[in-house]
């Protein structure tokens, strides 16, 4: 419960209730609606509420388990509800009369009686008071009436609004005996939507509401999750934003005196985060989701000690100690990138330290090269040299990467590494190499299903992609989203080597992202109204061409003898999709999976969604050169100098292809990192050389050296020549 503060500092809870009762009894004509002012009750004593029950699982995501629709737990009988006959139109008429006459008596009476208890809330907003509404499919809540009542609430006089809060407090103080009824759950669902909880002066009440909801049983949460997915998009977003604001302001209060001391209300944030996880679960149940997964990000968390959160999660994951990492949906991709980078750095330091200790223990002279993964390659044999180096130095994959191009004088301070990744990826994914198939319709690559004797190259490609994430390099890879879902199946390599990896639940939507034409055909099969067996004459058997030879595969035992019918066509489509995206490429993808995780093995991967892994690997392909202009730093130039103005006039007028070439020329990559253009730390320096020279770039430092060209035409000409011939490194 809440703790009492200094004497006489705040009005007591009893006085607050007495005041509300007096206001209620003395209702008369009211002035026009005024701003809500709520007495500060943050340091008053309330009855103890049940402690929050955190569902913390060691090294696993927090999620709402899907329960069977028919729950076996006994359902307590619903008490009879008071008779209420007020309709939406009646209420709206009362509000309009009150606005015109200034007499809010009828409206005040409605609010004070409607929110006086959980039973009264159900009596007012339940669609049919005689029906139980005990299923997850229908909450029984008259959503339109709830919305109208709440929309009008903030425009009523203070006494009306206070009466609602008094009723909420009465409901929260109710003595609970036995399990919650479905009417109780309905009341919680309705109270969560109260717009008054956006006001910080109501946060004490809001916190206790959240605590009670968080402490409900898993079966009760199951109902709330399914009922929440029926809320309109706008209202759903408001609920999520309100919870995020509550967490942010409790972490960094604008006026700390508004709230009890953090030590007295440590349960506020865990309670709110737990309730937020219910909305996240509801959002995930619908395709497409109600709101974007990024709408659950709380950017305030970017400013806390994330590594402490991460280590707490690792050390106390199976206890009741709270960590935001238990609820990764709330952590932004930028914050997750920081966690992964620092975790990688710590692993690099640990591996390098161990190499040094081993060297000294054998009484050998240590050298700096032993602290790095040194890759030496020839440009003319880039792929074969690279794969040989990675295979030979598998034990060093978790060291800091350094690349040397044989015959070139460039020193790798990051730029050569970027160049190596870019060129290597281009060659490996070329159709002639045969490891991946490019699908023109979807503009993405997918694993070749051709059988071979050795899948080690796929393992090395996985390791290459892992190295990119591990060394914070973005790659120009065009894998479909399904690939990253498989890469996290499971997110941590299982100890049992017989466990299948890279197998995910795939759907027709996943196939649409890779082979849209085939997926469309299967979709047509599902919606076909004629006789499927007679008209299509298909069986549970598929055919694939491999090196010019047509091979057949049964989708199930004796599939070649089982016809596809109207009754079993859904099974046929699901097995076909599973064959194409899982079974036919299992050996290729499992090798790729183990290669990736051999470098990126980290519990930090448990924090990531497939979409976030894709962003970490590929960055963003969308270039915002205006954002780059705003964040660019200058050395020897001012942003108002004529040469700089010429430069941005030219660059902003470039085609997308030329803008990508400029980005590649200056930074070594044509992809935008997770944090956007500002994260590039792009710098333009003045070059004191002759204006006959081309621009020079230091990709290690994302720096462009620009001579002071005399006019825009000359600058454009020299810049295009420079960025169009940007391969190879040298020293001045």
Low-confidence stretches: 1-73
N- to C-terminal distance: 70 Å
The main β sheet shows up as: 4 strands, mixed
Give, in spatial order, the strands making up the sheet with the most strands.
7-8-10-9
Number of domains: 4
Label the overall shape. Answer: globular
Measured as a percent range, the helix fraction is 40-55%
As a whole number of angstroms, the C-alpha radius of gyration is: 32 Å
SS element count, helices? 27
Beta-strand content = 5-15%
Average pLDDT, rounded to a whole number, is: 84
Structural class by helix and strand composition: alpha/beta
Total count of strands: 10
Pathway: Protein modification; protein ubiquitination
Enzyme class: transferase
Keywords: Ligase, Phosphoprotein, Transferase, Ubl conjugation pathway
GO molecular function, one term: ubiquitin protein ligase activity
């Amino acid at each position: 419960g809440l703790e009492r503060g200094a004497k006489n500092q705040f009005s007591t809870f009893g006085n607050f209730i007495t005041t509300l009762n007096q206001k209620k009894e003395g209702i008369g004509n009211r002035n026009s609606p005024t701003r809500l002012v709520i007495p500060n009750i943050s340091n008053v004593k309330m009855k103890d509420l049940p402690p929050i029950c955190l569902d913390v699982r060691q090294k696993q995501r927090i999620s709402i388990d899907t329960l069977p629709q028919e729950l076996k737990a006994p359902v307590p009988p619903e008490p009879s509800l008071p008779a209420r006959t007020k309709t939406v139109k009646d209420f709206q008429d009362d509000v309009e009369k009150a606005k015109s006459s200034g007499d809010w008596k009828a409206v005040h009476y409605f609010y004070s009686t409607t929110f006086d208890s959980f039973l009264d809330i159900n009596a007012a907003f339940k669609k049919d008071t005689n029906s139980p509404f005990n299923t997850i499919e229908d909450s029984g809540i008259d959503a339109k009436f709830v919305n109208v009542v709440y929309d009008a609430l903030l425009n009523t006089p203070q006494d009306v609004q206070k009466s609602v809060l008094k009723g909420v407090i009465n409901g929260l103080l109710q003595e609970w005996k036995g399990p919650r009824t479905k009417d109780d759950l309905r009341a919680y669902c309705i109270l969560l939507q109260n717009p008054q909880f956006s006001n910080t002066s109501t946060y004490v009440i809001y916190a206790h509401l959240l605590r009670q909801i968080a402490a409900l049983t898993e079966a009760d949460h199951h109902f709330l999750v399914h009922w929440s997915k029926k809320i309109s998009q706008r209202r759903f977003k408001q609920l999520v934003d309100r919870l995020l604001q509550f967490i942010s302001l409790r972490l960094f209060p604008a006026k700390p005196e508004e709230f009890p001391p953090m030590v007295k209300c440590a349960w506020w944030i865990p309670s709110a985060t737990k309730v937020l996880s219910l909305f996240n679960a509801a959002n995930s149940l619908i395709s497409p989701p109600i709101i974007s997964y990024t709408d659950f990000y709380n950017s305030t968390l970017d400013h806390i000690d994330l590594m402490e959160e991460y280590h707490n999660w690792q050390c106390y994951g199976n206890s009741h100690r709270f960590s935001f990492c238990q609820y990764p949906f709330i952590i932004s991709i930028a914050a997750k990138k920081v966690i992964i980078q620092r975790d990688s750095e710590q692993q690099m330091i640990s591996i390098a330290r161990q190499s040094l200790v081993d060297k000294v223990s054998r009484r050998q002279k240590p050298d700096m090269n032993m602290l790095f993964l040194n890759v030496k390659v020839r440009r003319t044999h880039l792929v074969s040299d690279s794969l040989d180096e990675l295979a030979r130095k598998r034990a060093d994959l978790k060291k800091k990467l350094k690349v040397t191009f044989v015959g070139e004088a460039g020193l790798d301070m990051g730029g050569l590494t970027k160049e190596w990744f870019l060129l290597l990826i281009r060659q490996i994914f070329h159709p002639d190499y045969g490891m991946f198939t490019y699908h023109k319709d979807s503009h993405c690559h997918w694993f070749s299903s051709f059988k071979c004797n050795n899948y080690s190259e796929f393992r090395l490609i996985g390791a290459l992609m892992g190295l990119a994430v591990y060394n914070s390099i973005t790659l120009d890879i065009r894998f479909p989203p399904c690939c990253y879902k498989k890469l996290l199946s499971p997110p941590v390599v299982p100890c049992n080597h017989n466990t299948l990896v890279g197998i995910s639940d795939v759907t027709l939507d996943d196939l649409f992202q890779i082979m849209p034409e085939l997926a469309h055909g299967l979709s047509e099969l599902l919606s076909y109204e004629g006789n499927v067996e007679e008209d299509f004459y298909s069986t549970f058997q598929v055919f694939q061409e491999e090196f010019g030879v047509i091979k057949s595969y049964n989708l199930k035992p004796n599939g070649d003898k089982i016809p596809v019918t109207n009754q079993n066509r859904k099974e046929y489509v699901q097995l076909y999709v599973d064959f194409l995206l899982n079974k036919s490429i299992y050996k290729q993808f499992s090798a790729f999976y183990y290669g990736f995780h051999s470098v990126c093995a980290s519990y930090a991967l448990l924090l990531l969604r497939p979409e976030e892994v894709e962003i970490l690997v590929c960055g963003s392909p969308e270039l915002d050169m205006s954002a780059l202009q705003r964040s660019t730093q200058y050395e020897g130039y001012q942003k108002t100098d004529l040469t700089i103005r010429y430069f941005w006039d030219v660059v902003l007028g470039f085609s997308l292809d030329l803008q990508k070439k400029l980005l590649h020329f200056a930074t070594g990559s044509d992809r935008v990192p997770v944090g956007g253009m500002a994260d590039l730390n792009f710098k333009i320096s003045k070059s004191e050389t002759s204006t006959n020279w081309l621009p020079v770039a230091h990709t290690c430092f994302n720096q462009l050296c620009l001579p002071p060209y005399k006019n825009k035409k000359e600058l454009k000409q020299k810049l295009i020549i420079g960025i169009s011939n940007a391969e190879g490194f040298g020293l001045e």
